[in-house]
């Protein structure tokens, strides 16, 4: 498997941000880490190995990035309003720096999808919904779509606009809705076992239905827990069935 690491100083984040790339050809899949993890997390937990047939077969090229959750919602002593600022800076990094990097290493016509598990699932969904002109869809596994699950009760305008469960019901702008509805690749999957929250996925699926947004909802059984064996099994099945 072709593998390379690239890093640059991010103006949006005022930090060095590495990206690991796997593969040569195919659509682009941006992997967003869980919780407080880093850009090599998906490799360490063998999810990249599980994706090897798709990567080596030229179906997709994977870009795995760093999270900054330890500098935002998982920073115990930071002022909550500053956490929201840092969250927005991460969004800007993805849209204004990462997406051009992906384009340079694929093409202007290559579809780009976001993917994440756990907290990464919320990021993946939010990044797509807010910029469907740049990102063509999302695979969100074992996620919740209410940012207040991570804010310890803090709520302001910036939390609202980064919390899909809050802003999507009130979204009426046809520019956004047309692009989101035409994506064809909104995949929400979860287990029903330990530490999973299938009701969060059902609830968000209901919001998508109300907005007339086609999507794919998968609720797996009570033996499917919030852990890496689930995601190593889940993501290849989603890719095989829908891409």
List the helices and strands and how they pair.
Layout: E1 3-10, E2 15-22, E3 27-32, H1 41-44, H2 47-56, E4 60-65, H3 80-104, E5 112-117, H4 119-130, E6 137-141, H5 148-151, H6 157-160, H7 164-167, H8 174-181, E7 186-190, H9 198-210, E8 216-219, H10 228-242
Parallel strand pairs: 3-4, 3-5, 5-6, 6-7, 7-8
Antiparallel strand pairs: 1-2, 2-4
Helix pairs in contact: 2-10
Provide a quick synopsis of the model.
With 243 residues, this protein is α/β, with parallel strands linked by helices.
Explain this structure:
The protein is of the alpha/beta class. It has one domain (3-242): Rossmann fold. 41% of the residues lie in helices and 20% in strands. It has ten helices and eight strands. An eight-stranded mixed sheet has the order 1-2-4-3-5-6-7-8, with helices on both faces. The two termini are 20 Å apart. The model has no long low-confidence stretch (mean pLDDT 97).
Largest sheet: 8 strands, mixed
Strand content: 15-25%
Shape: globular
Strand order of the largest sheet: 1-2-4-3-5-6-7-8
- CATH topology call: Rossmann fold
List keywords for this structure.
globular; single chain; 10 helices; alpha/beta; 8-stranded mixed β-sheet; Rossmann fold; 243 residues
């Amino acid at each position: 498997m072709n593998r390379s690491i690239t890093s640059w100083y991010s103006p949006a984040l005022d930090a060095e941000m590495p990206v690991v790339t796997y593969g040569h050809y195919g659509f682009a899949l941006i992997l967003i880490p869980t919780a407080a993890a880093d850009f090599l997390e998906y490799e360490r937990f063998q999810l990249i190995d599980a994706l090897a047939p798709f990567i080596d077969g030229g179906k997709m090229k994977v870009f795995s990035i760093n999270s900054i959750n330890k500098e935002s919602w998982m920073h115990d002593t930071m002022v909550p309003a500053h956490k929201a600022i840092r969250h927005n800076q991460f969004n800007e990094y993805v849209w204004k720096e990462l997406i051009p990097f992906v384009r340079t290493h694929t093409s202007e016509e290559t579809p780009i999808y976001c993917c994440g598990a756990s907290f990464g699932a919320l990021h993946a969904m939010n990044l797509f919904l807010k910029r469907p002109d740049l990102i063509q869809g999302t695979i969100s596994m074992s996620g919740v779509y209410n940012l207040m699950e991570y804010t310890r009760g803090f709520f302001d305008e910036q939390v609202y606009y980064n919390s899909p469960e809050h802003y999507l019901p009130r979204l009426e702008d046809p520019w956004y809705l047309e692009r989101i509805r035409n994506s064809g690749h909104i995949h929400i999957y979860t287990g029903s076992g330990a530490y999973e929250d299938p009701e969060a996925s059902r609830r968000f699926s209901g919001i998508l239905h109300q907005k007339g947004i086609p999507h794919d909802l998968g609720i797996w059984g009570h033996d499917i827990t919030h852990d890496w064996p689930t995601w190593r099994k889940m993501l290849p099945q989603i890719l095989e069935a829908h891409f």
